[in-house]
């Protein structure tokens, strides 16, 4: 006879929902710049998690940590470049010292290098791979080791991109290739680590109104109206996303509300991936 209780596994029952009280999260690239990582760190803290913040610049992550402390949660800031294995080791050493465990990892750090494929400098190729692929893997590996030692499972959420599921063009070649690798890494690690009680998922944003996006749209060397028209042509909801909308999806995947969800690449894209690239979400006056 099958013991139904034995099929539940690891005692990870749904029921806590979005409550992350008592859990420790690490969010890479979570400097206080109003971007996705910043929004994720604050969102997880509001749900009850203590949070380790990280950015290449120490001032940015220190500011995020101050905001988390003001919410009544514990937090430390650890500056470092996840494209550097030594920095990853130091990041986790500081996490161990402060908290002694990790329950949630959000692999948010990612960079790009815009160039036509035939003109892409090899140093840019290697740099983007080091951060987006190798850094994501090293952070996940370090989290896995600690989650297994603690015996309580955990959740890893990768920030992918619609660029990893279809071609954006416009010189995004190496960024797109590495994000596609992150998506496949998500699926493979979900399968490999499911027996350890570790769920691995990814969120795939479309264009998000981050400070970097605002700077780009305000740069006089670009035609902001033309850029926005290009973006919105592929987004049926006809607007850009906001960092908090990505953070809400991350919270879901990190929490027990998603206790039976793993290996998912979840688009948060206003319908971008649902739209055939040869189609359009607009109608001409004659057709309408």
CATH level-1 class = Alpha Beta
Q: Helix/strand/pairing class, anyone? A: alpha/beta
The total beta strand count reads: 7
Shape: globular
Average of pLDDT: 91
Q: What share of the residues lie within helices?
A: 40-55%
How many separate helices?
8
CATH-defined architecture: 3-Layer(aba) Sandwich
Topology-level CATH name = Rossmann fold
Folded structure, characterized:
- The chain is of the alpha/beta class.
- The protein has helices at residues 36-46, 58-70, 85-98, 122-150, 173-193, 211-218, 224-233, 243-254; strands at residues 24-27, 50-55, 75-79, 104-107, 154-159, 198-205, 265-268.
- It has one domain: 3-Layer(aba) Sandwich (Rossmann fold), CATH 3.40.50.720.
- Helices cover 41% and strands 13% of the residues.
- The protein has a seven-stranded parallel sheet with strand order 3-2-1-4-5-6-7, with helices on both faces.
- Helix 1 (36-46) packs across helix 8 (243-254), helix 3 (85-98) packs parallel to helix 4 and helix 4 packs parallel to helix 5.
- Mean pLDDT is 91; it is low at 6-13.
Lay out the secondary structure.
Elements: E1 24-27, H1 36-46, E2 50-55, H2 58-70, E3 75-79, H3 85-98, E4 104-107, H4 122-150, E5 154-159, H5 173-193, E6 198-205, H6 211-218, H7 224-233, H8 243-254, E7 265-268
Helix pairs in contact: 1-8, 3-4, 4-5
In short:
The protein is an alpha/beta fold. The protein has helices at 36-46, 58-70, 85-98, 122-150, 173-193, 211-218, 224-233, 243-254, and strands spanning 24-27, 50-55, 75-79, 104-107, 154-159, 198-205, 265-268.
């Amino acid at each position: 006879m099958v013991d139904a209780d034995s099929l539940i596994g690891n005692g990870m029952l749904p029921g806590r929902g979005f409550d992350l009280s008592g859990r420790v999260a690490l969010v890479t690239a979570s400097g206080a710049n109003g971007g996705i990582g910043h929004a994720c760190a604050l969102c997880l803290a509001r749900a009850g998690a203590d949070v380790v913040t990280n950015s290449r610049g120490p001032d940015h992550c220190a500011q995020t940590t101050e905001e988390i402390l003001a919410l009544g949660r514990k937090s430390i800031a650890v500056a470092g470049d996840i494209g550097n294995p030594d920095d990853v080791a130091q990041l986790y050493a500081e996490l161990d010292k402060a908290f002694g465990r990790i329950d949630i990892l959000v692999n948010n750090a990612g960079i790009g290098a815009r160039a036509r494929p035939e003109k892409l400098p090899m140093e840019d190729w290697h740099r983007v791979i080091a951060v987006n692929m190798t850094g994501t893997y090293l952070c996940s590996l370090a989290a896995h080791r600690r989650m297994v030692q603690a015996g309580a499972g955990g959740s890893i959420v990768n920030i992918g991109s619609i660029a990893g599921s279809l071609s954006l063009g416009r010189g995004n070649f190496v960024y797109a290739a590495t994000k596609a690798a992150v998506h496949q890494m998500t699926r493979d690690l979900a399968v490999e680590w499911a027996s350890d009680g570790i769920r691995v998922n990814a969120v795939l944003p479309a264009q998000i109104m981050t400070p970097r996006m605002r700077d780009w749209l305000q740069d006089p060397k670009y035609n902001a109206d033309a850029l926005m028209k290009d973006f919105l042509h592929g987004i049926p909801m006809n607007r850009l996303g906001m960092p908090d909308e990505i953070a809400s999806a991350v919270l879901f995947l990190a929490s027990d509300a998603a206790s039976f969800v793993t290996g998912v690449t979840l688009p948060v894209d206003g319908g971008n991936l649902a739209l055939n690239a040869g189609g359009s979400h607009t109608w001409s006056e004659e057709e309408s």
